[in-house]
Amino acid sequence: MEQLRYVIAGLGLTIHSQNSEKIKSSFASFLPFYVNEFPKRTVHLFDFFTGLTLDIKGEKIYSFDWEGTRCDIYMTESHYCVRFFITEIESYIIRADKEWKVINSDIKEINDRTLNCLSFFIMFGYCFASVPHNTLLIHASVVVYNDKAMVFQGKSGTGKSTHSRLWLENIKDTHLLNDDNPVVRIDDSGILNVYGSPWSGKTPCYINKHYEIAGFVRLSQANENKLTKLSLSKSFASILPSTSNMVWDKRVHENICNTISKVCMYGRSWSLECLPDREAAIMSKTILDTIEEIRENIKADTIAASAEC
Q1: How many CB atoms lie within 10 A of CB 188?
Q2: pLDDT digit string (tens) for 85-139?
Q3: Can you tell me the distance from the alpha carbon of 230 to that of 270, in angstroms, rounded to the nearest whole number?
Q4: Which class for 135: exposed (0-12), middle (13-18), buried (19 or more C-beta within 10 A)?
Q5: CA-CA to 268 of 20 to 30 Å: which in 74, 144, 228, 254?
């Protein structure tokens, strides 16, 4: 089998397939993340194998919809199985160890339908393999202004993409980083970053760049615009629903909660009750003015805590 290597948010993964050239040429959303060789010190998350013969094993523990298709999760003592239904009669399977280091799939032919399935399986594996590395794959829309990122969260249909569009239309020099599933990661130097990913929903925005996060903003529809700074506990409650989680898996759930707790300590979470208008975008832009103040406050608190010790 030939290998395809990708690096997403500094974390590597390898696809092993007899159809590697067809996958590479057809996988447009992944092309910006392709590498010939992994850079030094790249953390390798998992190996993904295609073309195997698999069947479902274990107890069905969860079902959910993803972009109009059904997914079922099964669990044994040592493995997970995930079945992705393209239609009621066409489905594909992955089987992975519980640390998501080796993922086997029964995808053999490569076409538009199976590429969508392959992308979902890789996203699923990435989400849970990356959790020990201060990493969160979240449901959000992200814009960048002056090299700082704004992460807009909210329930489906709240207006995340609309709010990003309002920034693009009304705030000069703004650009979109990702419109559905960006990656949040605290890097080795302690900087809180957001990264582009191959998963951007209906908006083709696959950018292999990262920026420091100025603010997380949970949006809700309202009759007037109101911006509120969130406390640590409310920040946690705001970010958690935007992540994919396996609450029944202690390793996954604890890692996700630990990373969210670290993210909350940066003090950059807000709520915005808003209308879909220019004034809402201008209001949320004021968050950018607070990042240095927050950084100095955290530094002062750290120094004070050290002095008390």
Answers
A1: 9
A2: 998 889 999 999 999 999 999 999 999 889 999 999 999 999 999 999 999 999 9
A3: 5
A4: buried
A5: 254
Alpha helices (H) along the chain: 20-26, 112-129, 160-170, 232-239, 250-264, 278-285, 291-308
Cβ 201 vs Cβ 181: under 8 Å: yes
Residues 109 and 198 placed together within one structural domain of the fold = no
How does DSSP assign 155-207, residue by residue?
Answer: STTSSHHHHHHHHHHHSTTEEEEESS--EEEE-TTS-EEEE--S--TTS----
Q: Which two tokens stand for residue 150?
A: 């704004």
Q: Which two tokens stand for residue 80?
A: 């997970």
Mark 203-219 as b/e (b = at least 16 C-beta within 10 Å): eebbbbebbbbbbbbbb
- Tokens 């908006």 appear where? 203
Which of 129, 161, 185 is the endpoint of a domain? 129
Residue 48 C-beta-side C-alpha neighbours within 13 Å: 27
Tokens 């959000």 identify what position? 140
